[in-house]
Amino acid sequence: MSVLLAPRGTQSAELTVDLGAIAENTSTFAARTSAAVMAVVKADGFGHGAADVARTALANGATRLGVTNVDEALALRDEGIDAPILSWLNAVDADFGAAGLAGVELAVPSREHLDAIAGGLGRGHPRPNLWDEGAPDPTRSPGAYVHLHLDTGLARDGAEPEAWSDLCRAARRAELDRTLQVVGVMGHLSHADVPGDSANSTARTRFAWGLQTARAAGLRPRWRHLAATAATLTDPLAHHTLCRIGAGLVGIDPSRTTRLRPAMTLQAPVVTVRRVRAGTPVGYGHTWTAPAATYLGLLPLGYADGLPLSASGTAHVALRGRRHPVVGRISMDQLVVDLGDDPVLPGEVATVFGPGDAGEPTVAEWATWAGTIEHEIVTRIGSRVRRRVA
Ligand SMILES: *Cc1c(COP(=O)(O)O)cnc(C)c1O
């Protein structure tokens, strides 16, 4: 047996985010709808860098941003991003005052949230939303900008239909008190990735009822939004006045109908190459044994860096334009590749996944190998991996 080591100065694993791909995907969505486009940049822009994705999307057709919690919204403000931002999932005691001062719009899933937001902001002087509303009216505080959130069928976030008309009436009273303005009504689809599923039409009907109820209470929400990536691509009836696009921006299409451009490439150098005899077992638990003499390459990437352990035994990486299997169990910090007789040298760079242009594996393939979805792969790349924006 012999082991070859990588030369000194060999780089560590590196994740490249292709902002050109994000720009192209954003344009694709903007061209698919006459509704406005909200770029959803929660979870650090689906792992691609929230501020980079936000700026790129805003420069290519998106006009609004969406995130989960207020902290994510405030982090974008700290980056100097002044576009409208909606935050849709917060505890009832979240810092709504800070959100209002930063001009962050808030989703309201319950009466308790409504009261907390009205109370928290009634005392403050929220920043008016200049993008949508033009110059502020100096004679009055605009109050908080809110989007009432109706549960349209996931039993997850959003108000239950039974609580909806009370929520709408209370919101209207708060408008008249000038503590808030209802600028939006939102719902979400459970089956948008299965376009023909009857759950979609049920949800659309419930959403239409929710809008009617809001209108009957005297509300005039400008932003009416139900569709995310998949419904924007497959269901024009769900578009209303705003589409919320997250996964699609980074090249993931849950409906599998549209060619989008994956924005992530993950690469790692081969740090050692060793020659092993037939019958040599590899890795924890010896789950793989070399059937013949072969070369094994070691990559400094493991599940702590976001590669799923469950892809052990099925995953591949590309080296010199050819695919090689990952063998044995993926470890926390490393994985082993069977190079066969390919004369790969330490220091050469393996592509773990990329857009697939050169035959390298894609995030979609890794998701299949691991029995998961692409979203889970891209949002879990670890902090140890160096990041580069291209
Ligand atoms: C994450 C999320 C989105 C974005 O969904 P994609 O399918 O990734 O476009 C939209 N709306 C809500 C409420 C979300 O949580």
TrEMBL record:
UniProt xrefs under SUPFAM superfamilies: Alanine racemase C-terminal domain-like, PLP-binding barrel
Keywords: Isomerase, Pyridoxal phosphate
Modification N6-(pyridoxal phosphate)lysine occurs at: K42
GO molecular function (one): alanine racemase activity
Xref: CDD domains: PLPDE_III_AR
Catalytic activity, reaction form: L-alanine = D-alanine
Requisite cofactors: pyridoxal 5'-phosphate
Alphabetical list of SMART domains matching this protein: Ala_racemase_C
Pfam family, one: Ala_racemase_N
Enzyme class: isomerase
Enzyme Commission identifier(s): 5.1.1.1
Pathway field: Amino-acid biosynthesis; D-alanine biosynthesis; D-alanine from L-alanine: step 1/1
Residues reported to bind substrate: R156, M332
Top-level taxon: Bacteria
Similarity-based family: Belongs to the alanine racemase family.
Role of this protein: Catalyzes the interconversion of L-alanine and D-alanine. May also act on other amino acids.
HAMAP family on file: Ala_racemase (MF_01201)
Protein name: Alanine racemase
Species per Swiss-Prot/TrEMBL record: Tenggerimyces flavus
Gene name linked to the record: alr
